Amino acid sequence: MSTLEVKDLHVSVTDEENGEGQEILKGVNLKMSTGEIHAIMGPNGTGKSTLSQAIMGNSKYKVTSGDILLDGESILDWPVDKRARAGLFLAMQYPAEIPGVTNIEFMRAAINARREKDDQIPVRQFIKKLDEKQAILDMTDEMSGRYLNEGFSGGEKKRNEILQLLMIEPSFAILDEIDSGLDIDALKVVSRGVNSMRGDNFGSLIITHYQRLLNYIVPDQVHIMMGGRIVQSGGPDLAKKLEDEGYAGIRDDLNLDVKLTDEI
Amino acid sequence: MRPSLKDKYMDDVVQFSQQNNEPKWFTKFRTDNLTSSSDLSLPTYEKINYRSWRLDRPSDFTATSSISDFKAAQSESYIIQTGDKTLDSRLEQSLADQGVILTDIFTAIKKYPELIQKYYMTKVVKSNENRLTAIHAAMMNGGIFLYIPTGVKVTDSIQATFIQDNHIKRDFNQHVLIVAEDNTELTYLENFISDGDAEENKANIVVEVVAGNDSHIHFSALDQMNAKTTSYLSRRGITGNNSRIDWAIGFMNDGDIIGDFGTDLIGEGSHTEAKVVAITTGDQVQGIDTKVTNYGRHTIGHILQHGVILESSTLTFNGVGHIVKGARGSDAQQESRVLMLSRKARGDANPILLIDENDVTAGHAASVGRVNAEQMYYLMSRGIDEKTAQRLVIRGFLSSVITEIPEEEVRDRLTQMIERKLINGQQ
Ligand SMILES: Nc1ncnc2c1ncn2[C@@H]1O[C@H](COP(=O)(O)OP(=O)(O)O)[C@@H](O)[C@H]1O
Ligand SMILES: [Mg+2]
After folding, report:
1. Contacts of B158 (CB under 8 A, 6+ apart)
2. Chain B partners of A147 at a C-beta cutoff of 8 Å?
3. Which of A98, A120, A165 to mutate to test the interface with B (most CBs of B within 10 A)?
4. Mean pLDDT throughout B18-28?
5. pLDDT tens track for B357-405
6. CB-CB under 8 Å, B377 with A98
7. What number is the average pLDDT over the span A228-245?
8. Which ligand is nearest the CA of A25, by number?
């Protein structure tokens, strides 16, 4: 069993225009183990993506205090690639496009990065696995042969993130708004992919704005994030409550002084 | 005072020509050019300073190459030369039957004097253009002639490999003359590669391509001169009406080199796509000047150059698009981009547009930048280490040229060359 723990995490970003640092995360606490699915819900602009990027190690997001621990060990000093090889995966809200490098080539490189130089994955084994995973996601060879995310529609990009997840088989996957821009059929397919990973050796942190996704990937725990903090945690029922009351309702229940960007 | 080239080399040039049993007119061509070389100046290229390389001081061009064995990739039709000697050569029978000629340049001078007299350094790269072309004309010591008669379509590629010898002291003044008559098609690949590193040498290479009316030439080049070789490489073409030359050049040399590339779009409605990728490493300098001149009406000239600079090397891309008066309805576009991987590296991308006609379209883009941080982050977030991620991003950046090469095998070779150069430069 693996554990991922976020302790009193404070994170700032630097505004590219005026160069000023702005604190986004103001003390986030979270603990999860493999075998569990956690969901983080929160209004836009509250710091959900910031949390996922800070865990992955994106250098744009500066951890000013607190810690991130993988199996009890702090990973704050680890570069991104080391975190990934240690078992972390982030399905990004806006994946980069890389022309000239095919999906297939990229996924092989990613798998081989986790293996010894003299024990690279045999081509046949790789292709077999790819076929299996593509089938789960209703994807074709044609897509895997294309350049990485180049010219992919929003939905195709999401699907491609999940394909990578299934191929790489990390211990912890953070899925950042994997449902945004998906129609109901695509949502079902993507959920099928994530659910196929469920088991004792896999944990996931699912970030979403809407409750809808959680009908398909049922979480063990739900956390609500507002104003850079987790303000309430509970079981799947919490997501339903949120659906009924909205973020403003929860905020008012908790007597929080947080401005919601969607509010007029 | 330093003796003039003429005084110093006249005897050698005459003797070399006679030893080769060259016809009198060719000996005269050599000696005339040797004489005029002193009066001509070195070619100048924007932002490329190579005077200190002393490319106009030849050493020994009369030596015979010491290489007698070399493994090179082969296609159905190919030629392998070590400077003056042809190691191996083969021309598909069906092409020979249709009158295609693939032979060494010395044989061509004797067997096909009319064609050589008509085209050799007269139409594309003229011998009196500058001091280096004149020196080449005087001291040419190896090369090939490829001739495609009217109406012949060469579907499989013809491949030429030229091995430059650094085991001994020997100037490498290779000449390639390709004449494709009207209504022809040709896919040609050439590979310049050095062998040995005992001696430092100079190379002065001229490659000429004549594309007849309604012809289409795919020209790919893999240039791999090693660090011991300082080179001038002029590789240019001219077009007939409605013809087209596509260049895909992988400039992967390890030594200092000037690449003078381009097309003169003479024929109405002709078209050229000039694509160059380059990687510079160590402390080498690679200067590339790609020039397309639109002479004919409705001509299209596009230049695309992508390069990567590592360590303390220098890479300069000049893109020159010149539309002359009268070339109505023509189009000149270019893009030159350079990625710098090291703070000690130096890079330049200079777009130069010279437009002397109103009724045309023209545009340019140029940039010098660093590896895209978001792409790097994305790749590394999947566990790929920094150096490998960098190579993948760069490969993507260079792919615009790689994908232009018609044969998969050649694409793979270029990809491997890129990988090798990057790994060297990343150490
Ligand atoms: N790279 C960045 N540069 C500057 N500001 C950022 C950056 N990323 C996020 N922010 C800011 O941080 C806040 C939280 O953003 P984000 O974490 O994306 O929220 P969420 O994912 O919950 O919608 C927003 O105000 C956003 O503008
Ligand atoms: Mg977000």
Report:
1. B75, B77, B78, B91, B102, B146, B186, B187, B188, B189
2. 396, 399
3. A98
4. 97
5. 999 999 999 999 999 999 999 999 999 999 999 999 998 889 877 887 7
6. no
7. 91
8. 1
A151 touching B, CB under 8 A?
no
Q: Where do the domains of chain A lie?
A: 3-95+171-254
The answer to whether A14 faces chain B, any CB pair under 8 Å, is no
- Give yes or no for a contact between B149 and B99, defined as CB atoms under 8 angstroms apart: yes
Task: Using the mean position of ligand 1's atoms as its centre, give its distance from the Cα of residue A47 in Å.
Answer: 6
Q: Which residues touch A252 (CB under 8 Å, ≥6 apart)?
A: none
Q: Are A106 and B392 in contact (CB < 8 Å)?
A: yes
Please state the domain extents for chain B.
Answer: 5-370
- Round the CA-based radius of gyration of chain B to a whole number and report it: 21
Question: In this structure, which ligand is nearest to the CA of A51?
Answer: 1
Q: What is the pLDDT of residues A99-108, one digit of tens each?
A: 888 999 999 9
Residue nearest to atom 24 of ligand 1 (CA): A45
A59 contacts B396? CB cut-off 8 A: no
Tell me how far apart the alpha carbons of residues B251 and B248 are, in angstroms, rounded to a whole number: 10
Which residues of chain B have a CB within 8 Å of the CB of A164? 382
Q: Are strands A37-41 and A21-33 parallel, antiparallel or unpaired?
A: unpaired
* Residues of chain B contacting residue A100, judged by C-beta atoms under 8 Å apart: 395-400, 402-403
Model pTM score = 0.85
Indicate whether residue A50 lines ligand 1 (CB < 6 A): yes
The one-letter amino acid at B242: N
Cα separation values, A168 from A87, B53, B117, B384, Å: 9, 52, 64, 12
CA count, 13 A, side-chain hemisphere, B342: 21
Q: Are B253 and B281 in contact (CB under 8 A)?
A: no
pLDDT digits 0-9 by tens, A164-194: 999 999 999 999 999 988 999 999 999 999 9
Q: Which fold has domain A3-95+171-254?
A: Rossmann fold (3.40.50)
Q: Is the ipTM of this complex over 0.85?
A: yes
